Here is the input.
Amino acid sequence: MSKSYRDGLPISPENFVDQLMRLKRGSIGRRDFLGLTGLGIATAVMAREIGIMPTPAFAAESLGDRMSIATWPNYHDPATFENFKKDTGVAVEVNVFGSNEEMLAKLQAGASGWSLFVPTNYTISTYQKLGIIEALDMAKLPNFDGSQEDPRFTSEGTIDGTTYAVPKNWGTTGFAVNTKQLTKPMTSWKDFWDTAMAEGDGRTMVHDYQLTTIGNALKYYGYSFNSLKQDELAKAEELLLKVKPHLFAVSSDYQPGMRAGDAWMTMCWTNDGAQLHRDIPEIAYVLGKEGGEIWTDFYAIPKDAPNKPAGYALLNYLMNPQVAVKEHLANGAPSTDARVNKLLPKEVLDNPILYPAADLLTPLEFGAAATLTDPGRAELMARFKSA
Amino acid sequence: MSAGTGAVSMHGNKLRDNLLTALLLGPAAAWLVVFLVLPFIAIAVFSVGERAPEGGYQAAFTLAQYANLPARATAFWNTMMLAPMGALACLLVAYPVAYYLALQAPQRWRLILLALVVIPFWTSLLMRTYAWMYVLGGRGIPALLAYVGFEDIRLINTPGAVLLGIVYGYLPLMILPIYVSLERLDRRLLEASADLGATPLSTFLGVTLKLSLPGVMTGFSLVMILLLGEYLIPTLLGGGKVFFIGNALVDLFLQSRNWPFGSAIAITLVLVSVVVLIAANRISTQVSGARRVDLI
Here is the structure.
C-alpha cells in the first residue's frame, strides 16, 4: 500500500477486511459470528420468505435478471459480480453462511433460492446422496478445463464418473506458532500437543470444531485424521482431556488472541496462517509432518435452483482464469487451476504457507463426510468441551 | 384517538368493544402463536424423534433423547451454577446504583443518568462483548498494568472475565426494576422509621430493602432466566473452555445437527426456566408480604 491517509488509522481497511476474512473456515464469522447470530440462516430465510428471490419462468437460454449464490463471507472479489452483471445483466445476490452444516440444513429444507453455492469437499457426497445437487452439464462450462486441475483437488467433486462440483480453491489445516515465545523448532502434531502441556501452557488454542481438533489429536498417535475406530478415538479423547486444563481457549476465532500475544500457538487454516505471518513475521505456519487436513471448496448447483441458466453462466464466468485470479488475490487461498497459478504473482506462489512443499502435502487427508456427521465424534467433542 | 374509543364505550356497544379488543390483541396473539407456540410444538415433536443418518430430524416416537440427557449433565450443572451466581453478582453491583439513582441523585440529573444506563443497549451485546475481548486481551488492560510494573497479568479467558462480561451485559436489566421499586418508595416511611429511633442501617434493612424486594426479585429472575440460555459471553470471554447448556444447544443444532437431542435439551431448559420463575414468584410473594410480583 502506498502512503495515504490510511497509514495513520488504528486498523487499516485491508486489515479490517482480513479480520472479516477470518469468517472463512471457522473463524468468528462462519462458525461463531454467523452461527451464533443466526445471520446466515436469517438472510436466506428472509430472502425466500419475503420473496426477494423471484422464481421467474425463463426461456431455455434466457438468463433472467437476477440469481442468488450461497457462499462464505468475504470469499469473493465484489468486482466479479459487478462485472458479471455488466456482461450478462444478471444481478447476483450473495448469501453468506456460517457453516457447511447450515448450508446443508437450508438445502435439505428445500426452496433455498440459490442457483450456485460453495460447499467444502467433505459435504459433496452427502448432497449427492440426498439428491439435492445437480449433475453438472459440462458442455455449459467451456471455461472449466479438467486437464488443468490437480486431480487431488477435483476428485471429490466427481462421484461415479459424474461431476457434481468443480473446485474453487484449496487449503490446509496446520498450526501457527509465535516463534519469539516458543523458540523450540516444531514440525509435528506431536510437538504441538506436547508443547501445549509444557512451554505453551495457558497459551495454546485448538479449534472449536470436532473435525480438526479430534483429527489432529488422532495424528499425535499417527492414526488417520478421519478415524472412527473406537479405540483410536478413545486415545485421542484421553489426550484431549489431558491437554484441556493447559489450553488458553477452545475457539476457531484465534486471530485476536495470536495478534494480541495472549496465545502463542493455535490450530490454524491456510488463509489465517498467511495473514498472521504477513502482519507478524515471527508467527510461523507449520504443517504437521504426520499429516492432517487438506481441503477444497467447490462450486455446485442445487437441483431446485430457480435460475439454472444464470447459475451455469456465473460458474462458467468464475472458471475463466482471468476472473479466477482476481478471486484468489482477494481471498488469499491457493488455486487448484494451473492456468490461474500461471497468472498469480511470484510472491504468492512462493509463499510456503499458501503453496507448501509437496512432501508436506503428501500425508495430508481430506476430511471425510462420515467424519463430519459421526455422532460419536460429536459426543467426544462435547465431553472434551465440558471437561 | 380518545374520541373514537371513548364514544364506543360510552354507548356501551359491547360488540364493537369486543371487536376493538380483538383487533388490539390480535397482532400480539398471532405473533405469539406463530413465533412461540408453533415453534415450541415443533421442538416438542422433534424431541421425540431420531437423528437422521445425515443429521437433522427423522420422524420417530422415542424417549431416547430424554434418556440421553445425562450426556450433557456437566453443561446443565455449569449453567445451574452460572445463572444464580451471575444474577447475584449483577444484583450486588446494581443495587447501589439503583439506590443512588432513585434516592440520592439530584432530580435534574436523574433522567440523564438513567439514559446512560440504557444507552449501551443501542449496540448489540455481541459487539460489546467482542470489544471486551480487546480490552481484556494482552494489548488492553494487561499492557497498561505491565507499563506500571505489574507484568504477566492475564485477564481474558478467565472465570473473572466471564463474570465481568455477565455483570456488564445484564446490569441495566437489574438496575431498572430495582430503580422503579425504590422510586415508588414512600419517603415518609423512612422519616417515620428514623423518628421512631431506628438506625440508618435498620431503616435500610427493615424498610428500604424490604419494600424494594419485588424489584430485586424481578431483576434477579429476569437476569437469571436469560443467563440460563447464555452462551455468547462464556464463548468469547471465557475462551470456550467452560461448556454451558447454551453452548451445547448451538453445537447440537449447527455442528453435529442432532436436532432431536437438541430439542430435548431445549424443552428441558424451558421447563427448568418455568420452575425457576414460579419459585422466584413464590419466594418474593412470601418475603414481601403477599404482594404479587409481576415478573417482567
